[in-house]
Design a protein that fits this description.
single chain, mainly alpha
């Protein structure tokens, strides 16, 4: 596995942990999970069901842009922009577990 993929996986895992900590300690947990669902839906639309970790890493390079667009268009919640990076990392962490070359 390339160093770039490994670094990305670590970043996504850390983002997922931050997401969980924030959701578990925040009255905004419902909002965070709706944001995660919005980003996960957009990720699924962009990468499909059959993909590699390298393809996910490539898509992640533009994720902040398309994630912000998706949230602005579809999120019926305010305040999403402050948590976007954490939500993106959490979504990638969860979604890439289905990559064809994923190894725990």
């Amino acid at each position: 596995m390339s160093a770039t993929i490994e670094v990305s996986r670590q970043q996504w895992h850390e983002g997922y942990q931050r997401f969980q900590a924030l959701a578990n300690s925040s009255p905004a947990a419902d909002r965070l999970y709706r944001e995660l669902e919005t980003i996960s839906d957009e990720l699924r639309r962009r990468i499909g069901q059959t993909f590699t970790l390298a393809e996910a890493v490539e898509l992640y390079g533009s994720a902040e842009r398309w994630g912000a667009d998706a949230m602005a268009e579809r999120a019926a919640v305010r305040g999403w922009s402050r948590d976007l990076a954490i939500v993106l990392d959490a979504a990638f962490y969860l979604y890439t577990r289905a990559a064809v070359d994923y190894l725990p």
